[in-house]
Amino acid sequence: MAASKTVGDVLRARGVSRRGFMKFCAATASLMALPPGMVNAVAAALEKARRPSVLWLPFQECTGCTESLTRSHSPTVEGLIFDAISLDYHHTLQAAAGHQAEAALHAAMEENYGNYLLLVDGSIPSKDKAFYSCTAGVSHYDMLVEAAKGAAALVAIGTCAAYGGLPRANPNPTGAVGVQDIIKDKPIINVSGCPPIPVVITGVLAHYLTFGTIPELDKYGRPMAFFGQNIHDRCYRRPFYDRGEFAETFDDEGAKKGYCLYKLGCKGPTTYNACATAKWNSGVSFPVQSGHGCIGCSEPDFWDKGSFYRPLSAGYWGDAKTVGIAGAAGAAIGLAAAAAARSRQKKAQKEEQA
Amino acid sequence: MNEGLYIQGISLLDFARGPALRWAVVVFVIGVVWRLGAMLLYTRRDLSRPNAASAPGGVKALLTRSAPPHELEKDIMFQHYSGYAWHISMFLVLLLFAPHMLFFKGILGFGWPTLPNLFITIFTVLTMVLLLILMVRRVTNPVLRQISTTDDYVSWFAAFLPFLTGVMSYTHITFGLRYEDMLALHFLSICFLLVWFPFSKLMHAIYIWPSRYKVGAAFARRGVRA
Q: In total, how many domains does chain A have?
């Protein structure tokens, strides 16, 4: 349950040094685009923050979001900050199972009614009475509606929870939707990505712990601090784009030299995320650095935006058959127009002769 | 035909590079074939006895009409060469900017080498400046203003708009619009150009060679210089 301990108490108990904690606060403040003077304020607020109760509901998902958070950063200070919240329900991570787990969920909801943070990963099926995805005989649709009633705010973790993600891809057999399509009366933060960057998840939680408010959001409900700029503008390969140096295939000389991946379908110019700056695996790399173009996974409906390997500037102009039919139609109209003109001319000549 | 692009959750960019482009291409092809077909089919057979062979005169006109006549060269120098300059510059931007080449590669199935962005920026600015100068000249010169029609102004706009939206997308000077929305406007400006093209003076891009040839050939047949 939500303990009375502060975040600072928990971190000290876990052996996190003051220096390590301040480094985390500085990094978090920087990620949230706060001025350097705010680092101490972040540290003070975080240290004194009461551990909020957090319920994590996994719905129609692949557990990739949980994997991202727990594997990539453990056991760093970000991981410990996650320990510093009171994670009262997460059926992948918790020891309890079955009825005991569900009892823990309901107890946490009752005890912290109106104050808990509700984290959701995975989309929510809405078709056919929403029976496609259930836990303990309750559809995830109903579970979300019920849990959201007592939540202070919701955080949709991953593109599936934010916008429906892969399950929503055409033809969307389960009628999958995101949290914001169902819950309309609560503040919702979308931390999109497939999966989202771990430090972005912890950054959003740190912001909530520090200020007690939700951060400034973009038009898709994502925190501006992490989703305010596109990958292309922050990409270290950008100079190659400007110089017109591109990889033509995934294994040519240009690819080996680290040239721009635009021609290979990179969606960096239209994708807003912190991959190029925060990177993955504790800042080791990100997809573009590893040689594959961005697939735009933090954007709504990214799965239905055409091929990952089709360059952004290539249009979906149709096909030869359509153009052929259009040409034939044009020729027919042209023939008719010429015939009509001829006819008018002959008529005029006849009138002149008469 | 969708090639994996679905209407569900369609953004402005998806609409611009998908359905809008597709229908613009259909209108463009119908219009061009219609007008070109009608022009060629309407041609009457000349029954009079020829004074000379027509074909060499037609070919000659293709060449001679590409340079200003000596008698008028001084007077039309600026108009003539600025026209050449912006057209060449436009084609360099159109064909040698990498994203543009990739657009054509998507249609034709093959690509070609491209220029670094710096050169493209220079040619883009050159094209836009020349187009602006020519427009100012059109509206300030009394004679040009008298002979200009709505077609001239809309055609100028249709040619200028893709450059404006293109350079705004590329430089990210978007006045608050997101990059992808600006790119969508660039695609939509191309769609407008494609739809307007067949039914306006922009058709000169297609008509120019057959019409010069026909005029030259007809004059040669009568035994006079075109």
A: 3
